[in-house]
Amino acid sequence: MTPSVTVENIPIALTDPVGQFSNECKHLIVRQLAIQSARCANFLAMQRPALIVIDMVNDFLEKWEPTPKQRLVRSINDLVGLMRQFGHPIIWVRQEFEPDLRDAFPEMKAKGIRITIKGTVGCQLASDLATAPSDPVVIKKRYSAFFGTQLHQMLRRLKPDVLILAGINTHACIRVTAIDAYQRDWKIVVAEECVDSYDREHHDISMRYMKDKIATVMTNQEICSALAAS
What we know:
By secondary structure, the chain is α/β, with parallel strands linked by helices. It is about 40% helix and about 20% strand. Helix 1 (about 25-45) packs across helix 8 and helix 6 runs parallel beside helix 7.
């Protein structure tokens, strides 16, 4: 079988017996091979990852259609189970504000928006998530899981070599947390099947922005292979 590589979603044979490839096409092939090689290197380096699951709380998820919500929860639970199997930590991050909104976003204060309020069911993690009593929970007040929290200090104690991000929303809390992690020199994996957004267009834009720039995007199966290889 002739070996091939996928470039821009198009499989291309690596042999070029009659010189049919343009220089531009050859450049794309080399670039794609370099990206795949770098991704494989990242796979092998994943020896002590930490999984960070962001904002899977009732107030957000109750607005989702059942099918995408169930698919996301199932994928996250699969990844959580995988991390537990290999003995790696899972950190849950959730948004929570005081009832008087004194610590809320300016827009929430101005418009009286009451969501993920302390003491309500809405700010709690969804009951169908595979949480454990021993899992640490970080409460945040803004998009980034690092802003105004102890997450960075927690990670310094855990000493992971990779941070795996999951949860919602891709274009807001996932993206901003990924940027903050990148600025702190953490290696980042975005779990492709375990992040989503209520806004599909902005989800796709954010995934393109993060992929192979500030983060490696990996499926659950790729993460499993990386853990098994390590």
